[in-house]
Each structure stands twice: as C-alpha cells, then as structure tokens.
Amino acid sequence: MPLLEQAWWTIPFQAIIVNSNTELRLSGTYANAIVDSGTTLVYGPDDVINAFYAAIPGSQTGESIDPSLQGQWVIREYKGHD
C-alpha cells in the first residue's frame, strides 16, 4: 500500500470491514485515510461513518446520551459476543 503523505501517514482505501462480516464501501471511489493509533477519531462520509459505528457492538449515538454530543458516537465497554 503506497504512503501518500508521510506527515500524516495517509493511505488510500476503498472499503472498511467491521467485525469480520460488515463491509462498507465508499461508492466505488477511492478515498484517503489517515492511520493514527493514538486517536479514536474517525472522519468520513456520514453514511459510511454511521454504518461503521452501528456495526460495532455497544456503540450508540452521542445524542442518545447527551444532546451536546450530537453528531458523535460513543462506544460503551463491550465484553464478549451478543
């Protein structure tokens, strides 16, 4: 995989796989991703980000916890499979 920008560890990607069974595609176009294991931030098209978090057990929209968290997601501690 080519490194597109050394300053930010930017790499190209076309899909995200969540929990080994949910594949989220970016409408057939390539996008860039910044790989940073020091943060929990994920940024991208709303439909892809919402589907990404919805596929993670224990995740919920921020506004379901507090109205000030609108547009964010929260992942509660998850142990084991459903």
Task: Give structural attributes.
11% helix; 1 helix; two-stranded antiparallel sheet; 82 residues; alpha+beta
Can you describe this structure?
- Helices cover 11% and strands 27% of the residues.
- It has 82 residues and is an alpha+beta fold.
- The chain has one domain.
- The strands form three sheets. It has a two-stranded antiparallel ribbon. A two-stranded antiparallel sheet has the order 2-3. A two-stranded antiparallel ribbon has the order 5-6.
- The longest helix has 9 residues, at 46-54.
- The protein is globular and about 40 Å long.
Give the secondary structure arrangement, pairings included.
Blueprint: E1 10-13, E2 15-18, E3 22-25, E4 31-34, H1 46-54, E5 59-61, E6 73-75
Looking at the chains present, what oligomeric state does this protein adopt? single chain
| Uncertain regions spanning at least 5 consecutive residues | none
The tally of strands reads 6
Question: Quick check: average pLDDT?
Answer: 76
Query: Count of DSSP helices?
Result: 1
Order of helices and strands: EEEEHEE
Q: What is the terminal separation in angstroms?
A: 34 Å
Strand content: 25-35%
Q: State the share of residues found in helices, binned by percent.
A: 10-25%
Query: Helices and strands: which structural class?
Result: alpha+beta
The largest sheet, given as strand count, sense and whether it forms a barrel, is: 2 strands, antiparallel
- What is the total domain count? 1
- The global form is globular
For the largest sheet, list the strands in their spatial order: 1-4
Integer-rounded radius of gyration:
14 Å
